[in-house]
Design brief:
This protein has seven helices and eleven strands. The protein has about 240 residues and is an alpha+beta fold. The relative contact order is 0.11.
Length: about 240
């Protein structure tokens, strides 16, 4: 396996110069090259040069493909769907609980509840009782690669603190079995009786930083050795999200 760096570049697809960058913008939900540069951590001049020369570093492509679940075949050549859907063919259907026995006739489907996010008092889990709005069908094989489907829930996002990646109205898939903190991963975090979607970073001295992707929101630092620690709970890791077209 070779190390892919930003110096490795490929032609910008067979669709003409700039098409790869345009699809990167589209896949990331951005409008301007300057926003793409900011997301990639490069200068606007680097993106302008890539567009002008029609050559895009494949490190950029792989980074955003991984981050947004994009197909590299779509990014490079415009072939196939932008995001290979983990949903079953019935993905657009929100099932009620009474419909599950009939809908579950296909063994390749697993159903994940869409919950109205509310914390059970004092517990690091979501209280589902009475809060389930319905179920979405996912491919069983895809979910099992991500973990235990029985520990997963869907939640809708309200607010803009995680833009541009996660937007108001998006739906996120949370794996409640994954509460171990990895740097810059995104988690559902309970603070008192609210649930937030944040990046979590660990600092020396038992401190956590809850960080928004939207730079208009200041980070929140929590000292786990102080009283506030009792009100902060990691619910689970956000492993996937989607938005309606």
């Amino acid at each position: 396996m070779r190390d892919i760096s930003s110096s490795d570049a490929v032609p910008a697809g067979g669709s003409g110069s700039g098409q790869v960058l345009d699809r990167l913008l589209q896949g990331a939900g951005l409008r301007r090259d300057s926003q793409l540069a900011d997301l990639l951590g490069v200068t606007p001049q680097a993106v302008s040069q890539a567009r002008r020369k029609g050559r895009v570093p494949d490190g950029w492509v792989l980074r955003l493909a991984s981050r947004f679940g994009l197909s590299t075949d779509w990014i490079y050549f415009g072939r196939g769907p932008a995001q290979p859907a983990p949903f079953s063919s019935s993905s657009s259907t929100l099932y009620g609980e009474a419909e599950l026995p009939h809908a579950a006739g296909s063994m390749d489907m697993a159903f994940v509840p869409l919950v109205g996010a509310r914390l059970a008092a004092g517990m690091g889990s979501l209280e589902n009782g009475g809060e389930v709005e319905g179920y979405f069908a996912f491919r069983q094989e895809w979910l099992c690669r991500k973990g235990d489907p029985d520990r997963m829930v869907l939640m809708k996002v309200f607010g803009d603190s995680m833009e541009p990646d996660i937007r108001h109205g998006d739906m996120v898939l949370v794996n409640q079995a994954q509460t171990r903190i990895f740097g810059h991963a995104i988690y559902a975090v309970g603070v008192n009786e609210e649930i937030y979607i944040k990046q979590i970073e660990t600092l020396p001295g038992g401190r956590l930083v809850l960080r928004s992707l939207n730079r208009n929101y200041a980070p929140i630092e929590v000292n786990l050795q102080e009283d506030l620690a009792d009100s902060v709970r990691v619910i689970g890791r956000v492993i996937w999200w989607c938005r309606e077209a």
